[in-house]
Amino acid sequence: MNTLKRLLGFLWIALGPAIIFYLCKIAFHEITNKPTADTIIQWSVFVFISIPIGVGLVIFGWYASKGEYSQLPENSEEL
Fold first, then answer.
1. C-alpha span between 32 and 50 (Å, rounded)
2. Is the dihedral of CA 62, 68, 70, 72 positive or negative?
3. pLDDT at 50 over 70
4. Which of 29, 36, 56, 64 is 20 to 30 A from 46 via CA?
């Protein structure tokens, strides 16, 4: 299970920038097709909100690939 966690960590690291890139690409396409204030504000908010999510995926993946989640507490009293 720990090997799976580490491998998925690399997936999260790759997924974070991919999501940001893909969303920026779609936003640019939508804004150039319909350059109104509504569209610009809507896609700017989408990108602005999604960037911290993508960064969080990279950080989570970094810790997972380093094995930080290998040892979990055995009972709920340690939480």
1. 20
2. negative
3. yes
4. 64
Residue at token pair 């893909």: 22
Q: What is the pLDDT of residues 11-40, one digit of tens each?
A: 999 999 999 999 999 999 999 999 999 999
What is the reported pTM?
0.78
- Give CA separation, 25 vs 33, 72, 76, in Å: 12, 39, 44
Structure tokens given for 9: 């960590």
Integer Cα distance of 34 and 14 in angstroms: 31
Tell me the three state secondary structure of residue 34.
Answer: coil
9-22: string of b/e by CB count within 10 Å (b at 16+)? beebbebbeeebee
